[in-house]
Design brief:
The complex is a heterodimer of chains A (410) and B (64).
Chain A (H helix, E strand, L loop, with lengths): L7 E4 L3 H12 L6 E5 L14 H4 L5 H4 L11 E5 L3 E5 L4 E4 L4 E3 L2 E4 L3 E3 L12 E2 L4 H10 L5 E5 L3 H12 L4 E5 L7 H18 L3 E3 L4 E6 L3 E6 L4 E3 L2 E4 L3 E3 L15 E2 L5 E3 L5 E7 L4 E4 L7 E2 L6 H18 L4 H5 L7 E6 L2 E7 L6 E7 L5 E7 L2 E8 L2 H5 L13
Parallel strand pairs in A: 1-2, 1-7, 2-3, 7-20, 9-16, 10-11, 10-16, 11-12, 18-21
Antiparallel strand pairs in A: 4-5, 5-6, 8-17, 13-14, 14-15, 19-20, 21-22, 23-24, 24-27, 25-26, 26-27
Helix pairs in contact in A: 1-7
Chain B lengths: L1 E5 L9 H5 L4 E3 L5 E3 L2 E2 L4 H10 L5 E5 L1
Antiparallel strand pairs in B: 1-4, 1-5, 2-3
Classes of the chains: A alpha/beta (410), B alpha+beta (64).
């Protein structure tokens, strides 16, 4: 087999793409790898974008870039600053936005997410931000000058972390506008969500819950926002943080099931809308939708930070076996049951969680004190589906083994 | 030999590394990270896995 015949194309120069490439090398694949990335940057770590990088003047790509390990110094091509535009699985070609064709023998889809846009007309006003990329973060950091009036639409992790960073950066006012009843309610439940709100309010952040944006006022930049409740807020900086959509438009017409992220089997191999598995097409990271037997058989797209690494590891192992010509059926049939984990830093509050807390219908403080440090368990019926702590990391870590036994595959 | 350096200004003691390479990383009784500064080459895979899962990306590995 010649070198080109083993070409691996990774679309998305992301953490998930990088981890897949590293694990391909670890599993013995020494052939060519091409990264095609929409952003101009080599893979970097996104969590600091709403925290350290957002509050530290001068920080840039060097401060968040993942190290490129020696195994990826040879035989790797980086095509950056070009988004993929279409995929043809029959011809095995990806076309980028310039019209250039990228043939592959095996394809890894790692195109991730993008923020949902402002849900109302922005009238072309300046001062409206989202936060996903490094360039987004640098632009927002410049806007978050002391004395700014900051309005954040959305009370998920990104919204709450930006609120904390803006409050620390000396904003004149920080307001969080949210459809939900309680910030972070979906992710953390009503107990922890209310405690997060209390801690933010102690720092001067205001919450406008069960609320939305009705209109914007200003010229040329936003100056005020009008909420659906009729309240008017001063606003120099509006941040839209109401969740993300999977970057799958370029897969339209490819035959893949990309209705909410790319449906894959337990080997991260793409499943077509007709149910056929494509053994040379993989999806990893935030864009992948797959069942996790730790919880049930429902295929989900889960945005927790540790999963790009877990899915990349799995895809790298399966793809290396596929390239060697091994029968992948045994590897693919072994349960893929990564334990989701996330964390969040807001002020001096350090949250650490395992599991899928948002599947829970009930949560309970089982140790510590909610207003200080604590451990909260999350249940779906009688089943423990997640745990989250404020501090108390040792106690939270000890839960990992409680999720270790996958339910039997049917 | 592999040299391990943890940037303690970044580290938030989440302990994710402990599960990938418990021979090198531990959380002590106060939930603070403690680690060995050196490890043999054969631990590279585990150490890279530990560096990968660090939420703060605070772990640097150097091969000598």
């Amino acid at each position: 087999m010649d070198a080109d015949a083993r070409l691996v194309l990774i679309v998305g120069a992301s953490m998930a793409g990088l981890r897949t490439a590293e694990n391909l090398r670890r599993a013995g694949y020494a052939g060519p790898i091409t990264f095609l990335g929409a952003e101009p940057h080599a893979p970097y770590n996104r969590p600091p974008l709403s925290k350290e990088l957002l509050q530290t003047e001068g920080q840039g790509h060097d401060d968040v870039a993942f190290p490129i390990r020696s195994a990826l110094e040879e035989n790797v091509e980086w095509v950056l600053g070009r988004a993929a535009q279409s995929l043809d699985v029959e011809r095995q070609v990806v076309v980028d936005e310039t019209g250039a064709e990228h043939p592959y023998r095996a394809l890894v889809i790692a195109t991730g997410l993008r923020p949902k846009p402002l849900p109302i007309d922005d009238h072309g006003l300046a001062g409206i931000h989202v936060l996903r990329t490094l360039d987004d973060a640098v632009a927002l950091r410049e806007a978050l000058r002391p004395g700014a009036n900051v309005v954040i639409l959305g009370s998920g992790f990104i919204g709450c972390e930006i609120a904390a960073t803006a409050a620390k950066a000396g904003a004149a006012s920080v307001s969080v506008v949210s459809q939900s009843r309680i910030p972070l309610e979906r992710a953390l439940g009503p107990l922890l969500g209310a405690e997060v709100r209390r801690r933010h309010e102690a720092q001067g952040v205001r919450f406008f819950c069960e609320n939305g944006l009705f209109g914007l006022v200003g010229d040329p930049g936003v100056e005020r926002v009008i909420l659906t409740s009729g309240v008017m807020l001063e606003c120099d900086v509006l941040v839209v943080a109401i969740g993300s959509d999977a970057n799958t438009e370029w897969l339209e017409g490819s035959g893949l099931d990309a209705s909410d992220g790319v449906l894959v089997n337990g080997g991260m191999q793409a499943v077509r809308a007709d149910g056929q598995v494509l053994e040379n097409v993989y999806a990893v990271g935030d864009v992948a939708r797959y069942p996790n037997p730790l919880f049930d058989e429902v295929a989900r797209r889960v945005e927790h930070w540790n999963l790009p690494t877990e899915t990349g590891k799995r895809a790298g192992q399966v793809l290396a076996a596929h390239i060697r010509g091994d029968d992948c059926a045994t590897i693919v049939a072994a349960p893929f049951a990564p334990l989701p984990s996330f964390w969040s830093d807001q002020y001096d509050m350090h949250l650490l969680a395992f599991g899928l807390t948002y599947l829970a219908d009930r949560s309970e403080v089982v140790a510590g004190d909610l207003t200080d440090e604590c451990v909260v368990e999350y249940f779906r019926g009688d089943e423990l589906v997640g745990v989250c702590g404020i501090g108390m990391r040792g106690a939270v870590q000890s839960y990992r083994s409680r999720f270790a036994a996958p339910v039997a595959a049917h | 030999m592999i040299t391990i350096d943890v940037d303690m200004n970044k580290c938030q003691h989440y302990g994710q590394c402990v599960f990938e390479a418990p021979e090198v990383f531990q959380l002590n009784a106060d939930d603070k990270l403690e680690y060995q500064a050196e490890a043999p080459d054969e631990m590279l895979g585990d150490l890279e896995a530990a560096a990968d899962v660090c939420p703060m990306q605070a772990i640097t590995l150097t091969r000598e």
